Amino acid sequence: MRPLPEPARETLTLAPVLHALGDPVRLELVRRAWADPGSTCSALADGLDVPMSTLSNHWRIMREAGVISMAVDGRHRRIRLRGDDLSRRFPGLLDPILRLAEAEPQHGAPSPGRPSISENVR
Fold first, then answer.
1. What element of type H or E holds 76?
2. What is the band of 28 on the pLDDT scale with cuts at 50, 70, 90?
3. 4: DSSP letter
């Protein structure tokens, strides 16, 4: 797999990260990436009523902000939430955002067995 360019952890800044997490579609994609690490773009976007061109833009915004990493795997793009980098750079930021996103009605029922981001860092 060939990784696509992404900012180094020490260069991550809060404004682009919050911008990336501030859009409802991107927040849902991040929540899905958290739940299913290493999944493909198309699998994570399954069921969303969003045009492919718009999804491509969402993925780019999240990758350039440092929220996700993306790797080319043949014809697919594998997505991984950069939870460890975000937690180290902005302690305590991601857990409450993902917890609230998970509890929103349009995203379905919460999954209580899922570990927190900080538990995944250890």
1. strand 76-81
2. very high
3. P
DSSP 107: G
Question: Which pLDDT value is given to residue 105?
Answer: 55
H/E run at residue 81: strand 76-81
Query: Which phi and psi angles does 86 have, rounded to 5°?
Result: -65, -40
Element (H, E) at 72: strand 68-73
What does pTM read for this prediction? 0.82
pLDDT tens track for 97-118:
988 888 775 533 333 444 444 4
Tokens representing residue 118 in the block: 């900080």
d(CA 87, CA 120): 10
Q: Which helix (H) or strand (E) holds 3?
A: strand 2-3
38 close to 73: Cβ distance less than 8 angstroms: no
